[in-house]
C-alpha cells in the first residue's frame, strides 16, 4: 500500500502523517517502522529495498516513511515503488510539498491513496482557526480570529503557534508578531469604513506607543500628506495636543 500526501500546506500534511503513524502503531510494533531520506544518497535506496523486501521479526507488516522521493533516479527502485502500491502488508508513506515528476505519475492513480493539501482559502483559514482553538479550549471572538487570519494567511504553523501562546494565557494583541502592525496600520486608511478604522486604532493603542504609530503613519504617507503630519507634530511638541488625540483626529477625518 502507498499513501501519497502532497501539497504546500505542510502543517496539515504533517498532522495527517502523524495520524497514520499513530493508527499503525495501534496495530503493529514501532520496531517495524523506519524512515528513509532519499536525498542522503544511493545507499538510502539500498536500505529501503532491503527493508521492504526483507522479513520482520514481528511479522510481515512494515511502515516506510519516506522523504524526498523525487530525487530517486534508479529505475529499479522506481519500479519497486510501483509494485508496492499493490502490497498489503508493507505501507509506504510519502509526504512531499510539490507534485513528484512524471516517473512517479502512477501515484495519482489507484490503488495509491492520494491526498492533496492545498493552501486554504480565506473562509477555510477562519474555520481552521476555530477548529484549532476548540482543541485548545480557547474562546476567540470573530475579531480575534480575523486578526490571526490576516496576520498569518497561509502560514498554518504560525497560526497554531499563536494559538498555543494564547492557550498559555496571552492575548491576541500581546502575541501577534510585528508584521501584523503594518497590516493594521493599512486599515486606518480612508478606504475602510469609520467603524473599522476606529476599532483598529483602539486595538493598536492597547499594544503600541501612540508616538510610534503616528511616526509610522507619517513615514508611509506621500510628501503632501507629510505636511499635515508635520503640522500635527508641532502641535504635540508645543503641548497643545497629544499623539492619541491626533490619531483619533486622523482616523475620524
Topology:
Layout: E1 2-6, H1 10-27, E2 33-37, H2 42-53, E3 62-67, H3 75-84, E4 90-96, E5 113-116, H4 122-135, H5 142-152, H6 156-167, H7 172-175, H8 179-186, H9 194-207, H10 210-220, H11 223-237, H12 243-252
Parallel strand pairs: 1-4, 1-5, 2-3, 3-4
Helix pairs in contact: 4-5, 4-6, 9-12, 10-12
Descriptive overview:
With 253 residues, the protein is an alpha/beta fold. The chain has three domains: 2-116, P-loop containing nucleotide triphosphate hydrolases (Rossmann fold, 3-Layer(aba) Sandwich), CATH 3.40.50.300; 119-177, Helicase, Ruva Protein, domain 3; 180-253, no CATH class. Helix content is 55%, strand content 11%. It has twelve helices and five strands. Helix 4 packs across helix 5 and helix 9 (194-207) packs antiparallel against helix 12 (243-252). The longest helix is centred in the first third of the chain and has 18 residues, at 10-27. The chain is elongated, with a radius of gyration of 27 Å. The N and C termini lie far apart (65 Å). The mean pLDDT is 84.
Strand order of the largest sheet: 2-3-4-1-5
- How much of the residues is beta strand, in percent? 5-15%
What's the N-to-C terminus distance? 65 Å
CATH class of the largest domain: Alpha Beta
Major β-sheet annotation: 5 strands, parallel
| Low-pLDDT segments | none
Amino acid at each position: 500500500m502507498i499513501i501519497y500526501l502532497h501539497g504546500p500546506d505542510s502543517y496539515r500534511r504533517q498532522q495527517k502523517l502523524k495520524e497514520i503513524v499513530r493508527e499503525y502503531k495501534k496495530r503493529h510494533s514501532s520496531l517495524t517502522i523506519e524512515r528513509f531520506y532519499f536525498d542522503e544518497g544511493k545507499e538510502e535506496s539500498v536500505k529501503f529495498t532491503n527493508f521492504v523486501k526483507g522479513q520482520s521479526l514481528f511479522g510481515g507488516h512494515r511502515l516506510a516513511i519516506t522523504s524526498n522521493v523525487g530525487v530517486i533516479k534508479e529505475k529499479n527502485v522506481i519500479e519497486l515503488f510501483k509494485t508496492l502500491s499493490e502490497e498489503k502488508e508493507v505501507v509506504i508513506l510519502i509526504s512531499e510539498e510539490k507534485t513528484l515528476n512524471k516517473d512517479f505519475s502512477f501515484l495519482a492513480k489507484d490503488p495509491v491513496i492520494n491526498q492533496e493539501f492545498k493552501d486554504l482559502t480565506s473562509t477555510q483559514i477562519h474555520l481552521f482557526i476555530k477548529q484549532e482553538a476548540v482543541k485548545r479550549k480557547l474562546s476567540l471572538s470573530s475579531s480575534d480570529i480575523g486578526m490571526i487570519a490576516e496576520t498569518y494567511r497561509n502560514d498554518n504553523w504560525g497560526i497554531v503557534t499563536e494559538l498555543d501562546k494564547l492557550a498559555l494565557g496571552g492575548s491576541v494583541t500581546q502575541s501577534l508578531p510585528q508584521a501584523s502592525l503594518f497590516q493594521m496600520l493599512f486599515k486606518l486608511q480612508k478606504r475602510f469604513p469609520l467603524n473599522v478604522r476606529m476599532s483598529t486604532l483602539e486595538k493598536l493603542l492597547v499594544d503600541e506607543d501612540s508616538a510610534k504609530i503616528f511616526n509610522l503613519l507619517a513615514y508611509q504617507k506621500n510628501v503632501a500628506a507629510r505636511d499635515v503630519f508635520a503640522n500635527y507634530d508641532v502641535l504635540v511638541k508645543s503641548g497643545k495636543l497629544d499623539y492619541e488625540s491626533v490619531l483619533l483626529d486622523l482616523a475620524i477625518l
